[in-house]
Design a protein that fits this description.
Order of helices and strands: HHHHHHEEHHEEEHHE
Strand content: 5-15%
Radius of gyration: 20 Å
Oligomer: single chain
Structural class: alpha+beta
CATH architecture of the largest domain: Up-down Bundle
CATH superfamily of the largest domain: dinb family like domain
CATH topology of the largest domain: Four Helix Bundle (Hemerythrin (Met), subunit A)
CATH class of the largest domain: Mainly Alpha
Largest sheet: 4 strands, mixed
Number of strands: 6
Shape: globular
Number of domains: 2
Distance between the termini: 27 Å
Number of helices: 10
């Protein structure tokens, strides 16, 4: 895991900076408008992404190793099994409405004029929280690689014109952005227990959930994901699908990042699978998170489904 944590940190920071860049380009009156996520304004979504970064900042506060802040993160042994990324996302579904309420309250408090005003101050709050999270990660594992400063993200961020488009833009470029500080010698990239809203987790697992949120809500805001972030998000949601709908009757393919077998039924052992669902990473995420109906995606060609058991709509959305 030692090499995975820096890679995940790179992915989430780069994706957050793409979102910052896109949000920076929005006019102030956009924040009170409806977003692509029903029931959420653009300002609500921006504040939710900022809160996601804030949760990482809080998680990086040292703990005593038993999920309690104030000690040395990673010291001792956890008393309970750490929450996995899949368990965390499963809990997110159950907490969805309270999460939305928190985002609306944050948006209202930042704008200062209630949830329908939209002053544009949300963009400053997002940039601040992302910068703080990047600095916190740099202090723990070293500067993130490939991330660009927020002002450069504003100039280079790729904004999706069609959330249904498959595939992803290339990862953001730019010089490494040093968040300041650095880890003690020999500790860079070491996984450790952290405190999260879902309970004690290993840092690598929590970073995977941050990537999913950054990618999915970035899509809600019209931001095309970076390839590294899209890869992480796709693989985690595919794992979640396999855990939620175990079986071997259907082969679910999301090239080039994932392929899993799901749905109870006869196991396929050789030759062409009789039931196959194939989707690009972006349509796959949109369907799994309830942004797009599975039947609509099949009808318009974003997803292909073959075989009498290939209708996976009863199992959707996952989140």
């Amino acid at each position: 895991m030692s090499g995975v944590v820096p890679e995940l940190a790179d992915a989430v920071v780069a994706q957050w900076l793409l979102v910052v860049g896109a949000v920076n380009a929005l006019p102030a009156d956009s924040f009170a408008k409806a977003s692509g996520l029903p029931g959420w304004t653009v300002g609500d979504l921006v504040m939710h992404v900022a809160r996601s970064a804030g949760a990482l900042i809080e998680a990086l506060t040292p703990t005593d190793g038993r999920g309690r802040r104030g000690g040395s993160a990673g010291a001792g042994r956890p008393q309970t099994r750490p929450v996995s990324a899949i368990d965390y996302l499963t809990g997110t579904g159950a907490r969805a409405e309270s999460i939305a309420d928190v985002a609306r309250e944050l948006s209202a408090s930042v704008s200062g004029s209630g949830p329908v005003s939209g002053s544009g101050m949300e963009r400053d709050h997002l940039a601040t929280e992302v910068s703080r999270a990047q600095a916190a990660l740099a202090g723990l594992i070293g500067p993130t690689r490939g991330a660009v400063a927020p002002d450069r993200a504003a100039a280079s961020g790729r904004v999706a014109r069609d959330g249904a488009a498959s595939g992803a833009a290339a990862a953001s470029g730019g010089e490494p952005h040093d968040g300041g500080g650095g880890p003690p010698d020999g500790e860079a990239g070491v996984d450790r227990l952290v405190v999260t809203p879902g309970g004690p987790m290993m840092l690598g697992e929590f970073l995977r959930t941050r990537v999913v949120e950054a990618v999915v809500h970035g899509l809600d805001l019209g931001v095309t994901p970076s390839r590294p972030a899209l890869r992480v998000a796709t693989r985690l949601i595919a794992e979640l699908f396999a855990a939620r709908v175990p079986g071997h009757a259907v082969e679910l393919r999301v090239p080039p990042f994932a392929a899993v077998q799901v749905v109870e039924g006869p196991r396929h052992t050789r030759g062409t699978p009789p039931n196959v669902v194939e989707a690009g990473p972006v349509p796959f995420l949109l369907v799994c998170t309830g942004r797009v109906d599975f039947a609509d995606a099949v009808a318009d060609g974003r997803i292909t489904a073959s075989g009498e058991r290939s209708d996976i709509s009863p199992h959707l959305p996952l989140l």
